[in-house]
Amino acid sequence: MSSNVPLSTWVFDQGGSNFIQRIDYDINSNAIYLGWAQAGSATSDSTWRIIQNTYDGSNRFTGSGFPSGSCAFNFVWDNRTTYSYS
Hints:
globular, disordered N terminus, mainly beta
């Protein structure tokens, strides 16, 4: 699903807390995985909220899902491709 397209990373302020955001794009520049965690979190920490976006064969967005259906901040960004999303 994801490719060797570089990941994007941003730091932003959300109500006084700094968060980082990572986005993993596919070869068609579709944002497949989006993740947020407290600033300073490593991609190997279980502190991430992750979303997987899906697209059809024409690259039209078809939906989003969370790992195991949970939007909690307790997933590992490095493991994003191994989760079941719903």
